[in-house]
Every structure is written in structure tokens, then in C-alpha cells.
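Contributing new records

If you add data, match the layout below exactly. Sequence lines come first and carry their own label; structure lines follow with theirs. Keep one chain per record. Anything else will be rejected by the validation script.
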Amino acid sequence: MYILGINAYHGDSSACLVKNGRLIAALEEERVRRIKHWAGFPSEAIKFCLEHAGINIGDVDHIAVGRDPKAHLWQRALFVLKNRPSPVFLWDRLKNQARVRSFDDEIRRTFNLKEGALKARIHHVEHHQAHFASGFFVSPFDKAAILSVDGLGDFVSTMFGVGEGNTIKIFEETFFPHSLGFFYTALTQYLGFWKYGDEYKVMGLSAFGKPEFLNTMRDIVKTKNDGSFELNLNYFIHQKGEVSMTWDGGEPVISKMFSKKLEEILGPAREKDKPLEKHHEDIAASIQARYEEVFFYLLGKLAQKTGSENLCLVGGCAQNSLANGKIYANSSFENVYIPPAGHDAGIAIGAAFHVWNQILGNERKFVMSSPFWGPEYDEEYIKSKIVNLKNDRELRVERLEKSDLIQKTARLIADGNIVGWFQGRTEWGPRALGNRSILANPCRKDMKEILNLKIKKREPFRPFAPSVLEEVVGEYFQETHPVPFMEKVYMIKPEKRDVIPAITHADGTGRLQTVSKESNPLYYKLIKAFGDITGVPIVLNTSFNENEPIVNRPEEAVDCFLRTKMDVLVLGNYIILRNTK
């Protein structure tokens, strides 16, 4: 049985394919379209999944869509009657829901099918239920508490529940307009970061400030005695229907969400590209601090309600790695599973497994312990994309066996070279985890500045991440729980911060990825070889891109290598070096 899972007409559009209860392929549409957070119908991701399996759309038994236009109709109607939002608000949402309802028409157009030719049964899965399934049904737990915290999906921002076996139960929801995600997004805009998904910049900036405005943030988002929260809507305008959202293809766009009252208490909003001052750093620290207070308040309620020691965390806010790294210290949960795509891309997988487990009642038989579900390219394909490089006098192309490739690459990194590393299948989720990565020496104090100057061309306050061998995490970090998908930030031990300065953030933390022999044998061997040379079994790992989605195909890797000042490119068994080095 084949189930096609889809996240469509929302940010981070994506598709996956589940065969007999096991995931076999998954891809975000942005990797093909080359536009970050691409929103719309993920036709190219769908085509990849089908091609990978060697099937066509007629072989698919079920199509699971992570949106349900019929969900929470009573709450929607009550909100409209009570608040009378602008006609623009209503029209935007009616258009988006109409696209979701006409989903089968889009499938037919994509694959040139006649009316009635689609065999698959289409299921519309409520947004947060899809999030739930994307965490619990692929987790290693037989029973776990589940929390989904997001901006908004199907009129819900937060959902509490519990999973056991092949069933998930929901016991509470927080409805629009109250949303922790919207709190963070509105304040992100206030700080001058306007692109969809820019919240991670506020997380990075927060390390430089102090939460001097925490009491103000407590007035903006309030906790309630029943264990929930609410926004002080005086500081927002989304509830008035004055916020437009674009989901119909290309990069998502969300218009201004905060009111004039926010500027009255915090001062004028920072204009885009204007200098960042201490005032902004302190506001960023205050935003993050208040988010964490509310987040741990919700976790406390969830733990009390379920009595579980296991937690599955999902939703867009599950990408807040700063808060995630503090869960063990600030809650009673002992085991935490966050999938590699906890954000909206993961809805595709969640919708598919919701159908397999919850609707069809099948037993669970899959655990997502790997993030590598995208395309891979054989040696002949790679060779065809680098043949012209052999004629470039400024480049040197070599083919090496894997053992020699590992040793040479490790030595190049140790010597201070910046290496583009392209191997195997593309990662699923927003992090480069050792298959589409740029690697460098974390022991060099100047490496952060070199990377930003040569390649990334991004804000200097943003940190770089360490990939560390799983068995030595406790030697360098104060927490020892594995972090396979780079989803948590841990405090680096004080005595180790000068050893790995390039990946030590201003507050002494690092957003780490733990690498095991089982999860990625080749990457593990590379890090180990680097450790044998330097005494430090850690490499600096950043996504293989330059202000674009992570590279997907070899030709994109070559293009990124040539237009930046990267020193070395490793594509499969081929290594390309600049003769000027």
C-alpha cells in the first residue's frame, strides 16, 4: 500500500511517500524550486517521491493532505461573528481553503488525468493532528505526551495530547488569535527581520542581550491559571483581519502583525538593514526568555496531565532549539523526540502516518532515526556534472576511494580549508546534517568571520553549529542526551569554549548535532579522522548554500562552490581543489 503525504498551500510545502507503513522518500519543494520556504502545491516533490519508488500516481492508494477546511468551523464562525474582521481577511482565507478543497483537481492537472481517473482516496488531516502524527507515530516511544506549538493551522495554534500504540488522543487546543508563534513572529518583525522564517535570527541575537524587557513581554503574552496562555491583543493586529498572508506559490509573505502600541512601549521598530543596537539585543533576549517561560509552563501542564516521561514536540515552534535544549532541566520529561522537520514541512509525513495508523488502524512499524530521505546521485551523474571542471586551470579534480577521501578531507579541514561536502541522499528538514554540508575547523577563532566573508554573507551575530561524535558529547557539553537532528542547543563546558571557539556562541552555547556510526557512517568516519589529527572530534557544520535553499543536486553544489570562495568541494568520490590554495 502506498500513501502519499502532502503539505500544500502553506509555508514549506512538501511531499512524502509511505510504503506499507514505512517512509521511503520525502522532499521539501524549496529544494527543487530554489526558493526558501516555497508555498503552494508541491508538484516537484510529489514527482520525486513517485520516481524514487518507481511508481506513478495511479499506484497510490491514499493521498493525505495536512489541511482540513472543515476543521473547527464552529470556532471560526464564532470568531467572525464576535470580531467582524475585515473582508480582506475573510477573502484570503476563503481562497486558501478553496485551493485545499480542490486538491484532487490540482493532482489531475499535475499528472494530466481525466475526471474520475484518480484511484487514490483523498484524506484531509487537521493541521495539528498531522503535526502530532509527524512526531509520535515515527518516534521510538510506545506511549508519550505530545505538544504542538505553532503560528496557526486550521484555526489552532497549540494542541495538547497523548499517543499510545497506533492511536493519538487530543485533550486541549488553543484557538486563533492566541498564538506563541504569532507572538514570536510579530516581535521578529518589530526587530526588522521581515522574511518568512526569520525567527531563528532573533534566537541568535538573543545571546548578546539581557532580558531587560521581560516584564513588558509578560504583558504581551500572559499565562492563565488553567495552564494555558493568551496574547494581549492590544499589541497585535492579526485578530482584526489586517494581516495578509501569501501561500499561492513562491516565497511566503506575511504583512505587519504588531500594532502601534508595541512601539509606544518599546520604541520605534527597527527598520530593515539598520544597525542593531544593545536595545535590540535586549529585546531579543526578552522575547526568547518570555517564550521559554510560557513554553515550560505548557510543558508542566502536559506532564501533569499525562504523567508520561516521554515527550514528542512538534510544530513550527519546535524549531526553537534554545528552548528545546533546556527541556530536561525545566520539566519532568526524561526522553524527548523532535523529528528532523518539526515545522510545517513535516505535516506531509504526519498526514501520511495519521492515515496509516489512526485512520486505517495499522500497527506502527517505522521509527525515523535518519533524516536522509531526499534524492541521491550516482557516480556517473556526478561525473557528468564536473567533466568541464577538469579543463579549468584554476581547479584540480581527483577521484579517490572512500578511505583515502576521508583522510584527505579531514586533513584539508584541519589545515583551515572550507569544504563543501556532498554525499548520499538529501536531508529532510531545515538542517544540513552531514550530506549537504559546508565543513570547517571549529578550533580556529577566525573561522566564523572567514565563513561569513567567503561564503555565507549573513549577519555576523549568527552562530555556526558543531557536529560531534555521539560518544564524546559529555566531554564538551553539559548535557549528554543525543541530538541527532541538530534540534537542541546545549551549554558548552567552560573549559572547552576556547578549544572550539568557532562554534561557541556568545552565551557559551552550541546548537549541536550528535553523529553515530549507525546514523551516518561516512560522516562519522570523517569527524573521527579529523579528531585523530587535531584531538577534537568535532567539525563546524553549516548548510551547503549561499542565501538560498540547501543544495539538492550536484550541479547546484558546483555552482555554489564556483561563485563563492569555498576552498574544496567533495562530491561523492570526487574532490575538487583550487590550485591557488
